Amino acid sequence: ELPPSEFMQVADSTWLVLSVVSNGREPPGCQATGVTKIARSVIAPLAEHHVSVLMLSTYQTDFILVRERDLPVVIHTLAGEFDIYKEESGECVPVTCDDVSNGFLKPKPPASPTLHPVQSPQTRFCVLTVAPDTLPAIATMLIDVLFYSHSPTWDAATGSQDLDSITFFSFSLIEGYISIVMDAETQKRFPSDLLLTSSTGELWRMVRIGGQPLGFDECGIVAQIAEPLAAADISAYYISTFNFDHALVPEEGSAEVIQLLQQRQESGR
What we know:
The chain is α+β, with helices and mostly antiparallel strands. The protein has a domain at 118-151 and 159-211 and 247-268. Helices cover 23% and strands 23% of the residues. The longest helix is centred in the middle third of the chain and has 14 residues, at 135-148.
């Protein structure tokens, strides 16, 4: 419904959404959530089969977007570990490898994946949700933050953003569930009784991946971040965008995460 515009770019691929639902068979004491929870079973295998993914964490769950043309290799890659269903007319119908067998083999690229730089701004973030019936009460504030807030400071001398004042705001509305990521200072502008968060009210720090626009063609970016965090049993909230990928980790352990990822970057060079 959006009118064509020179200011809007649309990727030529159609994407499908994978929603990973737990069946309760996780080992006792497993506390990691978010992208780390599905790193070994979903993200890493798809990266090994050269499938590019977009990752979208929400307050309620996590979604992986894959290109429609990659669906056959996705099914064959994950069928050994998961029961896979597709939605038809509101019903979940089992999917078998035979349903999408045509052309599922995809050659692996011989070159090693690019190791992108990671940066960690000083900004502290909140992960929140809002009850749908209270959304009108904060709609004006949301519009102001989304469209009229100042952009991040750009240093003309270095050609980079000032990481001490990075602007990041994410709003998603999926099947009636609302998720918001905002910095702690922006949160103060909203009525505290309408924004819901976990009982601990923890703050998050961001690790931003990429030194230049990442685009949508490269695979393995999410895996490079998710796998070491999974190995350390560290939760992460992950949001892919065209320009950068963003992993939010609990502030309490953020220094360990940043050191872990920077060491991985150095060892990969």
